[in-house]
Amino acid sequence: MDAFTLAELIRIMRECAGEDDQVDLDGDVAEVDFAELGYDSLALLETAGRLAREWGVSLPEEELTQVRTPAGYVALVNRELAQSGAGG
Amino acid sequence: MSRRVAITGIGVVAPGAVGTKQFWELLMAGRPVTRTITSFDPGRFRSQLAAECDFYPEQHGLSPEQCARLDRVTQFALVAAREAMLDSRIASTGEAAHRVGVSIGTAVGCTQQLEQQYRAVSDHHEHWWVDHSRASPFFYDYFVPSSIAAELAWLVGAEGPSTVVSTGCTSGIDAIGYGCELIREGSVDVVVAGGSDAPIAPITVACFDAIKATSSRNDDPETACRPFDRTRNGFVLGEGAAVLVLERLELARARGARIYGEVAGFASRSNGYHMTGLRADGREMAAAVTAALDEARLPATAVDYVNAHGTATKQNDRHETAALKHSLREHAYRVPVSSIKSMIGHSLGAIGAIEVATCALSLENGAVPPTANLHEPEPELDLDYVPLVAREMPVEVALTVGSGFGGFQSAMVLARDLGPLA
Amino acid sequence: MTTAAVTGIGVVAPNGLGVADYWSAVLRGQPAIGPIPDSTYPVRFAGQVVGFEPDRHLPGRLVPQTDRMTQFAIAAADWAVQDAKLDLSGFDPLDVGVVTAGTSGGFSFGQRELANLCHRGPEHVSAYMSFAWFYAVNSGQISIRHDLRGPTGVLVADQAGGLDALAQARRKVRQGTRLVLTGGLDCPLCPYSLTAQLAGGRLSDRDDPATAYLPFDVRAGGHVPGEGGAILVLEDRAQAGARGAAVYGEIAGYGATTDPHPDSGRPPNLRRAIELALADAGLHPADVAVVFADAAAVPELDQAEARALAEVFGPHGVPVTAPKTAIGRIYAGGGPLDVVAALLALRERVIPPTVNVARRTVDRAVDLVEAPRPLTGSAALVLARGVGGFNSALVVSTRDIVDR
């Protein structure tokens, strides 16, 4: 099973939630707060919806609201993928 | 002083209660009517709950032609308007028609038919393209929700200004507020004003699923909506309508009309922040409350009852509690605050009007409805939310607040009697 | 009473982006109705906005969450603020409001998500669908973009709603709101939206863009839809003066009525709306330099409008124009665009033409302006009617306005 990567997350977020004009998403953003990247809770939910469809992974709602950074999001996705045995 | 506005008629279509009398009894009983969705199979949805109206349009006086042609949202509005007109005993024909207006709020208009029409023009999902020859001849009326205002104008014989006000979940309050402005400025003497929405359809349920705003307590529908409670986890979708007859106070008194109360103040503000999110401090809702009280020339301490927005989302109930503390200060801790959404759900653009009607009925009946399903408030939510049981008490002044997608915040103050005309 | 002055304009129209390009095209009568790409429907033409690039005109984060209509609205609001030379940071956010008109919401977004729902399943519906298609979205997005926290409103009355929104903004300015962004934008050209309009029965099915939309013409056979609209900055005249802002003109009068049910036997009420607007402005019919007509291009409706004008102004009593023949009817955006044209006509002292209409009907009672004509006077009347019997009339005036 392929692991879910930061690059994949960024690709999906760019596509479904757009990109803040002041932010360089190609830089080192793994540990940057979503708020600083211009992404709000809706962007994270929209991304979660896309992940559910493309990767077959359902992220727990409570934890989704706690995630603060892309690295955290990627870790959450990979944990869920491992637990569910689903993959892209 | 500008012209004053009296409420002289009320009509309500609510989940569990078609008719104002039945509606008030339901509120006083503190009985939630939220349930598993029956109008379609909700099996594939995250939230499978709603507060539905048991609504049989022909029994409520609509013609077979109206039943066939009109979306449910328009049917609700017409039934509520007819009750309100009868209640007010007002006649509006002939030349007086020019002095009558219509202002009806709706957040999502003819959603059910808009979705049905998509199914039709895609040949029941057979095609991704759209085949216009399969559309209903009434599709345009569903497409543009001002058709609701037009139908109401025809029903009541209004030929003054008519409009739909569509500010999301504050539409109902805002439509009544807009109607009051028309009377205060002298454009009309009477406005048939209120709100209607019939959003319980797969598309709406899917939208709220996607943003996880609705309760997913599918195994316990009746207690799913728990405003201010520690265990609350979202709102429950509702539907319905309330329509009021607003009338220039002087004329209402002159004809000896029964007056529920006056709309003493109204204000709307925005949070300029987020389409669905709320700032924790509630400053803009507080600003709306303060402006509405200023217009009413009443101090915060005059408020006897607050009808809360109380959706039972984590975010809303904190936001609103903060807003009430900012605007009413110490008085916020003394005044009873309750959410009827605990019983009849959140009917988007209708609920604001239903809540104004609730305030008017509180003035009239000397009682306030409870917040159902509230057993253990969240610790920071420390106001008197009238848990579980209605309270008999004189209400001279009632405040209702609303908050909607788009950042809209509205407040309206009703007063039983502001004294003689100046 | 407070005078509500227009100090900024942002336009997105089929014949131009920005107020300067729009006005120049309107004055030249430049046609901007073109074929709808790949239309398989019995409506071939529309007034389509060209050259609008969401990625260039909008913050990147807003593009995926907005319908084209809202993208227009956000850009138009930005341009209006720039045009008014406004520094909004100098205002208390609670003193600045937004009032827009909606008609049918954002249905290119809505159609896509309905398709996702019906063909793929509920979990495929976008989180942004919770607001991207609803009628309030433009007011919400504009208020958020500029952090405006004052009174907000959204009115829906089909094509009449755009004027109602401007009038409501004027009420708010009079009540003490320092500044209001107001207007309307629409974009009803996706297949679903066209299908709804076809059911409404007022679209033209002609196969020549030059004869597709011909109000007041013997060949009138419905209208061409269009996309776009305008946002205006409205503020107290004295404040505008104090901050050195140039003033286009004022919203001087307004009247709105509703027609009785067609079967009632009672007369329609457009005339009354006009009379109310003139009285509100404190003007006589003779003070009106030009009327921007609703111009439905449905024979009965054209006749009703001609009759109302003749009753108020006398036969052939006032120059009448309908620049919308070059861009189509734009619903919530139509009224605000006509108001912009009316303000500029007063300023430039020239009446822009109604294009294409050549074989006039209605007993020639209407003095239709077919080529640019000099304008004398300082007030213009703008009319808009909506399906369902909504009549709105708005008077704009440049009384006492020094040239910009």
SSE topology:
The complex is a heterotrimer of chains A (88), B (422) and C (404).
Chain A: H1 6-17, H2 34-37, H3 41-55, H4 61-66, H5 70-84
Helix pairs in contact in A: 1-3
Chain B: E1 5-14, E2 17-18, H1 20-29, E3 35-36, E4 49-50, H2 64-69, H3 72-88, E5 100-105, H4 111-121, H5 139-143, H6 146-156, E6 162-165, H7 171-184, E7 190-197, H8 202-210, E8 240-248, H9 249-254, E9 261-270, H10 283-296, E10 305-307, H11 314-328, E11 337-338, H12 341-344, H13 351-365, E12 367-368, E13 391-392, E14 397-404, E15 408-415
Parallel strand pairs in B: 5-6, 5-7, 10-11, 10-14
Antiparallel strand pairs in B: 1-2, 1-8, 1-9, 3-4, 7-8, 9-15, 12-13, 14-15
Chain C: E1 4-13, E2 16-17, H1 19-28, E3 33-35, E4 45-47, H2 54-57, H3 68-83, E5 96-102, H4 107-120, H5 129-132, H6 137-145, E6 152-156, H7 161-174, E7 179-186, H8 191-200, E8 228-236, H9 237-242, E9 249-258, H10 270-281, E10 288-292, H11 299-313, E11 319-321, H12 334-348, E12 350-351, E13 367-368, E14 373-374, E15 379-386, E16 390-397
Parallel strand pairs in C: 5-6, 5-7, 10-11, 10-15, 11-13
Antiparallel strand pairs in C: 1-2, 1-8, 1-9, 3-4, 7-8, 9-16, 12-14, 15-16
Describe the model.
The complex is a heterotrimer of chains A (88), B (422) and C (404). Chain A contains 5 helices and no strands. Chain A is mainly α and 88 residues long. Chain A is globular and about 35 Å long. Chain B has 422 residues and is of the alpha/beta class. Chain B has 13 helices and 15 strands. The model of chain B has no long low-confidence stretch (mean pLDDT 96). Chain C has 12 helices and 16 strands. Chain C has helices at 19-28, 54-57, 68-83, 107-120, 129-132, 137-145, 161-174, 191-200, 237-242, 270-281, 299-313, 334-348, and strands spanning 4-13, 16-17, 33-35, 45-47, 96-102, 152-156, 179-186, 228-236, 249-258, 288-292, 319-321, 350-351, 367-368, 373-374, 379-386, 390-397. In chain C, the strands form 3 sheets. In chain C, strands 1, 2, 5, 6, 7, 8, 9, 10, 11, 13, 15 and 16 form a 12-stranded mixed beta sheet that branches. A two-stranded antiparallel ribbon of chain C has the order 3-4. In chain C, strands 12-14 form a two-stranded antiparallel sheet. In chain C, strand 10 (288-292), helix 11 and strand 11 form a beta-alpha-beta unit. The longest helix of chain C is centred in the first third of the chain and has 16 residues, at 68-83. Chain C is globular and about 60 Å long. Chains B and C meet through helix 4, helix 5, helix 6, strand 6 and helix 7 of B and strand 5, helix 4, helix 5, helix 6 and strand 6 of C. Strand 6 (162-165) of chain B pairs antiparallel with strand 6 (152-156) of chain C.
